[in-house]
């Protein structure tokens, strides 16, 4: 069990903007007794414990995704989900639907499907649940995941030498059933990659299952000449927005960082 001494938390907790759940204990002085000659035992100082990953103190966190990138990004932010509950939703796009609508609809559908699963699991029934969806938009075209090599080739030919936008929607459901969502847009410009480079990139297989047929976190990072906005949004989960949504609804983000620091230091 990780425990933090009150004294050691005082400075850090105020720096982190954490509020104490109990006031700082007063100096433990013996209190004058009602019965002459008897002294009441001093009150034991209240100790605040940082939540241990996996402990019951911490609300459960469920990631409704099969994407290893989303899991890695959450972990990078010091938040390890207690469970993964991916779902397969129909990702086909209706005519006239714009990128923001698409990602919002799909992230919501993924959250709804995962929520149905966790409702039947008592230990996860009261959890924070996160789902996300990413698409690439270039001109009027919306590019979903490339599943076949020729799809990825077409997408890369379309993206080379010009700017495109990457949209990710994050949907969060709180243990109390509140729904929150954010749609984040990042602008990316690729240099004019050659056919030969596209051929070599396809051989890497890194495009498979990625929106727009590329993964910025791999070789395709070398295609980018400009990026405006959130990098993690392109990889599939905008961390600033995700972490603020969780913290804003009471998920103890900063306390978990503190607990992790304790573990790392031990
Ligand atoms: C543009 C881009 C996308 N991607 C990935 C993020 C997403 O995993 C994927 C877009 O597909 P999504 O349908 O958003 O997600 P997914 O099917 O992979 O996972 P799940 O629905 O279970 O959450 O593309 C990258 O990894 N790097 C990139 O540079």
From TrEMBL:
User: What does the record give as the active site?
Assistant: 133
State the InterPro entries in the record. ITPase-like_fam, Maf-like
Q: Which keywords has UniProt assigned to this entry?
A: Cytoplasm, Hydrolase, Nucleotide metabolism
Catalytic reaction(s) noted: UTP + H2O = UMP + diphosphate + H(+); dTTP + H2O = dTMP + diphosphate + H(+); N(7)-methyl-GTP + H2O = N(7)-methyl-GMP + diphosphate + H(+)
Ranges of compositional bias, category Low complexity: 1-39
Q: Name one GO cellular component term.
A: cytoplasm
Kindly list the residues the record flags as site (Important for substrate specificity): 69, 134, 217
Q: Give the GO terms filed under biological process for this record.
A: nucleotide metabolic process
| Molecular function terms, GO-annotated | dTTP diphosphatase activity; UTP diphosphatase activity
Question: What's the top EC group for this one?
Answer: hydrolase
As given in the record, the signal peptide range reads none
Keyword flag Cytoplasm? yes
Q: Where is this region: Disordered?
A: 1-61
Protein localization: Cytoplasm
Which stretches are tagged as biased composition: Basic residues? 40-51
Q: EC number(s) in its UniProt entry? A: 3.6.1.9
Instruction: Give the cofactors, semicolon-separated.
Output: a divalent metal cation
Known NCBIfam families for this protein? maf
According to its UniProt entry, the function of this protein is described as: Nucleoside triphosphate pyrophosphatase that hydrolyzes 7-methyl-GTP (m(7)GTP). May have a dual role in cell division arrest and in preventing the incorporation of modified nucleotides into cellular nucleic acids.
- Give the family per the record: Belongs to the Maf family. YceF subfamily. Belongs to the Maf family. YhdE subfamily.
Write down what this protein is called. dTTP/UTP pyrophosphatase
Species of origin: Methyloceanibacter caenitepidi
Q: What is the lineage of its organism?
A: Bacteria, Pseudomonadati, Pseudomonadota, Alphaproteobacteria, Hyphomicrobiales
